[in-house]
Amino acid sequence: MTDLVIRNVRPLGKAATDIAVAGGRIAAMGTNLPANGALVEDGGGALLLPGLIEAHTHLDKTLLGMDWVENVVASDIRSKIDNEREMKGVLGLDPALQSARQVVMSIARGTTAIRSHVDIDTTYGLAGLEGVAATRERYADVIDLQIVAFPQSGMMIRKGTVELMDEALRQGADIVGGLDPCAIDFDPKGHLDVVFDLAVRHGKPIDIHLHEPGELGLFTFGMILERTRAHGLAGKVTVSHAFSLGMNDYLRVGRLLDEIAGAGVMLMSTGPAGVPVPPLIRALDAGIAFCSGTDGMRDLWNPYGNADMLQRAQILADRNNLSRDAEVERALDVCTFGGAAVMGLPDYGLKVGDFADLVLVEGRTLTEAVVTLPQRKLVVKRGRVVARDGEALVEAA
Ligand SMILES: [Zn+2]
User: Fold this and answer.
1) For residue 151, how far is its CA from the centre of ligand 1 (angstroms)?
2) How many angstroms is it from 214 CA to the middle of ligand 1?
3) What is the distance in A from the centroid of ligand 1 to the CA of 295?
4) DSSP single-letter state for residue 46
5) Which residues contact 47 (CB under 8 A, 6 or more apart)?
6) Residues near ion ligand 1 (Cβ under 5 Å)
7) Which domains does the chain have, with CATH numbers?
8) Cα 364 to averaged position of ligand 1 atoms, centre (Å)
């Protein structure tokens, strides 16, 4: 039985078609599909994209909807970490409410799946996990949400954090996080042995923040690759940021990209300004699964961000100096199929049988949509309309 028919849409910019949805999945595609009493939406010739994928953010600590907080923190990572841990308490930040606010903003912009890192530390314990897990449950039928247990304040340098990470994974965190094993934890072997041990014991994937630059980052990369191969975790390990791959040594970076592809390690880049970034096209050409995300937004680290993964594709393309349409489309692909691959989302796409996670936007071509960032006309999650004309149909309060 058909639940929804969307007429006259162009899947990824191809020829116009209708699309019928039944049981949360794409049931048929073709012209003049029968409605059979189902809800009918007029696509008006819009582009049809699969749901946008936010594969790296921090839902537990956005300041969305709260009073403005003047940012006076120094620009180094350690200062930002310490400032945030203190200020979260001062501000009385509520991870459940804040994550709900960002989820609603994401839905309005066409995101249908989110991977969020959530702080696990000895000051707040599992409060962040509990808050975001409540949001995951509350919005379970309108967005897929993966939670990474993330030792933001360091793990080896703060006694008790390893035990909290273990507990977080028992209590519903989906993924083991990590953070700068050398630069923050000063113990790369200790840090990575714990991360991989937690992953193996809990049977969960890994997603490590690696801001370490240049030689230091490459050193850590080597240790991550070694452990990924030793534990047979191909396709289960993501390195987020990976600034060291932006180093100016063409041949060496090329060899490492091949090694990363061979080990089945995946990459995430937000395309940030001001730091070297992994070369997107070279990484994709090497066969590496590559995703992107908003990262922390409107939080105690930085005032920017709007949870728009179409805009993220533009930022990623711009930061990688991509201007040909075919290349811009690859940046968009990172924010759709790339994210789905890294997150391991089943039945993702625009084929008959795939889950009906869909976004409609105006635009003659995919590249034009990335350039003009049109409002999301319609967002569908598992066959249900969850946003219309840029507004989510669910609330945060
Ligand atoms: Zn992050």
Assistant:
1) 11
2) 19
3) 5
4) E
5) 9, 10, 12, 13, 360, 361, 362, 363, 365, 366, 369
6) 295
7) 4-50+348-388 (2.30.40.10), 52-343 (3.20.20.140)
8) 34
Q: 115 C-alpha to center of ligand 1: Å?
A: 10
- pTM over 0.70, yes/no: yes
Each of the 397 residues of the chain gets a pLDDT tens digit; together they read: 899 999 999 999 999 999 999 999 999 999 999 998 999 999 999 999 999 999 999 999 999 999 999 999 998 999 999 999 999 999 999 999 999 999 999 999 999 999 999 999 999 999 999 999 999 999 999 999 999 999 999 999 999 999 999 999 999 999 999 999 999 999 999 999 999 999 999 999 999 999 999 999 999 999 999 999 999 999 999 999 999 999 999 999 999 999 999 999 999 999 999 999 999 999 999 999 999 999 999 999 999 999 999 999 999 999 999 999 999 999 999 999 999 999 999 999 999 999 999 999 999 999 999 999 999 999 999 999 999 999 999 999 7
Please check whether residue 164 is in contact with residue 150, taking contact to mean a CB–CB distance below 8 angstroms: no
Tell how far the Cα of 268 is from the centroid of ligand 1, in angstroms: 10
Burial 163-175 (b: 16+ CB within 10 A, else e): ebbbebbeeebbb
Nearest CA among 374, 358, 290, 367 for reference residue 327: 367
Task: Give ∠ CA 388-394-397 in degrees, rounded to 5.
Answer: 140
Q: How far are the Cα atoms of 195, 311, 342 from residue 338, in angstroms, in the given order?
A: 24, 16, 6
Asked whether 242 and 271 are in contact (CB, 8 A), the reply is no
User: 333: CA distance to ligand 1 center in Å?
Assistant: 21
56 CA distance to ligand 1 middle (Å): 6
Q: How far, in Å, from the CA of 27 to the mean position of ligand 1?
A: 37
Which residues, other chains included, contact 240 with Cβ-Cβ below 8 Å and sequence gap of 6+? 56, 207, 208, 209, 210, 267, 268, 269
How many angstroms is it from 269 CA to the middle of ligand 1? Answer: 10
Q: Are strands 290-291 and 384-388 parallel, antiparallel or unpaired?
A: unpaired
